[in-house]
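Action item from last meeting closed. Structure (377 res):
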């Protein structure tokens, strides 16, 4: 079956799934009663887009996996404004995997794997909407033992610090137990102050700052492959899409007033289930939502809480998808508990990432190249 073969090939190429599971064809999703009515409007075609961020002048900057950054505006997607394609590869899950602007739009940060596969966060000054190439400096690096589970998403939090997501080091099943180890940056969400030191500073109120047995950069841990995460632009809450091993895909949640230190359980737990005879940690923070692989997909793609204006019924809902399934779904979350799950009735293709513009409108990025905006139906 052609579609199945194509999806399988792409999954193999990007390797986001933890096992060799093959995507199965799914029935057309039905819109549930009460769900917002949305449509996807294709606004651009990119080459393997992996990430996007709101940039200067109402633009959205799109990262392409092979190493280019292009700016999306009303006129479409422009020529590359940054090209590091000779510094990265697309082995396994590698490439240019994330980008973020600081709150003043004064600096652009990119997250990529270098030619040795080392995860690298670099910074550029931005002036008048233009990347100042000669200001480039490396902020943080992390060696990666395998080509998968590199994570790589980066976002500024409402606190003005840079958060960095790294997977567990890959290989399947967390062979080194990195998820629960506090002396490695693998399997973690980090929180750093890139402007506060050289090459960066660790915020004093990080949960493990000053702990000789732990890396001070760690904000939360017990993550397998937190491929995409975001902060709610309205509430400041944190949402993480953590890709499962072979059974459970999960969304993790932390409130805006969290002090950090959350243990999301991997690799003792996969979702709410002990993993391979694992023991649930006393401080385990279970996912706010999980789903198995019997129909909804096989590799969660974390999205954003919708804070735009155009789809009124969607405001406040967390929109996400799955790489293998492509259906857009939303969660309604109150006080850290899901009160409703919605099938939004549209399919974004091989959804690998989302982007949010300065107005809170959402864009869906499919690895095949489609960049679509979430519009009212
Ligand atoms: Ca977990």
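Sequence:
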């Amino acid at each position: 079956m052609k579609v199945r073969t194509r999806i399988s090939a792409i999954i193999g190429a990007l390797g986001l799934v933890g096992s060799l599971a093959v995507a199965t064809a799914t029935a057309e999703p039905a819109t549930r009663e009460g769900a917002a009515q949305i449509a996807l409007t294709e606004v651009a075609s990119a080459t393997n887009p992996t990430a996007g961020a709101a940039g200067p002048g109402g633009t959205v900057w799109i990262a392409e996996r092979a190493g280019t950054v292009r700016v999306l505006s009303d006129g479409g997607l422009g020529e590359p404004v940054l090209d590091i394609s000779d510094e990265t590869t697309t082995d396994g899950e590698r490439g240019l995997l994330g980008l973020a602007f600081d709150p003043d739009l004064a600096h652009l940060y990119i997250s990529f794997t270098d030619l040795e596969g080392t995860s690298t966060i670099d910074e550029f000054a931005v002036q008048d909407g233009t990347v100042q190439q000669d200001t480039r400096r490396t902020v943080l690096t992390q060696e990666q033992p395998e080509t998968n589970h590199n994570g790589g998403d980066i976002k500024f939090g409402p606190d003005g610090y840079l958060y960095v997501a790294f997977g567990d080091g890959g290989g399947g099943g967390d062979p080194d137990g990195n998820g629960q180890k506090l002396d490695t940056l693998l399997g973690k969400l980090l929180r750093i102050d890139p402007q506060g030191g050289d090459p960066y500073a660790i915020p004093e109120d990080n949960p493990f700052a000053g702990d000789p047995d732990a890396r001070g950069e760690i904000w939360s841990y017990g993550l397998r492959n937190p491929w995409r995460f975001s902060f709610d632009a309205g509430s400041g809450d944190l949402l993480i899409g953590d890709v499962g091993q072979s059974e459970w895909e999960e969304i993790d949640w932390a409130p805006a007033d969290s002090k950090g230190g959350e243990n999301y359980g991997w690799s003792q737990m996969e979702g709410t289930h002990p993993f391979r005879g694992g023991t649930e940690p006393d401080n385990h923070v279970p996912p706010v939502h999980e789903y198995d692989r019997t129909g909804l997909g096989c590799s969660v793609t974390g999205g954003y809480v919708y804070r735009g204006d155009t789809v009124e019924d969607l405001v406040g809902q967390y929109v996400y998808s799955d790489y293998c399934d492509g259906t857009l779904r939303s969660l309604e979350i109150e006080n850290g508990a899901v009160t409703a799950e919605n099938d939004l009735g549209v399919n974004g293709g091989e959804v690998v990432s989302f982007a949010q513009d300065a107005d809170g409108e959402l864009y869906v990025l499919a690895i095949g190249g489609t960049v679509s905006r979430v519009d009212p139906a």
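Note appended to the action item: Helices lie at 2-14.
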